[in-house]
Amino acid sequence: MTLKHILLHPDPRLKKVCAPVEGVTPELGKLAEDMLQTMYDAPGIGLAAPQVGVMQRLFVMDCVKGQDEAAKPMVLINPEVTWTSEDRSTYEEGCLSIPEQFAEVTRPARVRMAWTGLDNQRHEEEFDDLWATCAQHEFDHLNGKLFIDYLGPIKRQLITRRMEKFKRERARG
Ligand code: K1U
Ligand code: ZN
Questions:
Q1: Taking a C-beta distance cutoff of 8 angstroms, is the pair 56, 17 a contact?
Q2: Is 138 a known active-site residue?
Q3: Cβ count near 7 (within 10 Å)
Q4: How far out from the chain centre does Cα 158 lie?
Q5: Which of 38, 48, 110, 126 is deepest in the core (most CB within 10 A)?
Q6: Span 149-170, pLDDT tens digits
Q7: Which ligand lies nearest to the CA atom of residue 67 in the structure?
Q8: CB-ligand 1 contact for 44 (6 Å cutoff)
Q9: Closest atom, ligand 1, to C-alpha of 46
Q10: Atom 22 of ligand 1 has which residue's CA nearest to it?
Q11: How far apart are the CA of 109 and the centre of ligand 2, in A?
């Protein structure tokens, strides 16, 4: 297992629309395993391929809360949103590409997604609660959209400037 380097905002790769995955290969399986390991290590509840510099349409997530419940690692390849609920929920979101910055984002409370799994079979499931928020956040990454894009321009610019400063200071060492 290899821990991947997570790209930090602002980075042009985080603004691009990703290409469909062409086939479920052993290399893709290894990438998904590495992404899950990187997500658990961060720690986070989701991670999309462009965040590790791979411009393909897949993401991983595991929103199981607490230590008592068994982990539920999920790998979604070429995901599609097939339905969203009318009702909305608001969650204070974070992003591993925008560390230590949080903001409330309102999204559909429930969502259905269809995707290809590592078993090369098509799957469809309805997500709710944190799973729904996380799945939509990760799906957005595949279309070059970040949670700060839901904020007003002042808040968004403030977070972007903080991140530019953070990256400058980190580069100086
Ligand atoms: O995509 C990402 O950058 C991962 C992100 C996912 C996410 C978080 C919150 C709402 C929607 C989507 C994260 O995992 S940020 C870290 C985080 O939220 C967390 C970390 C440890 C325990 C629990 C949550
Ligand atoms: Zn994110």
A1: no
A2: yes
A3: 16
A4: 22
A5: 48
A6: 999 999 999 999 999 999 999 9
A7: 1
A8: yes
A9: 4
A10: 44
A11: 18
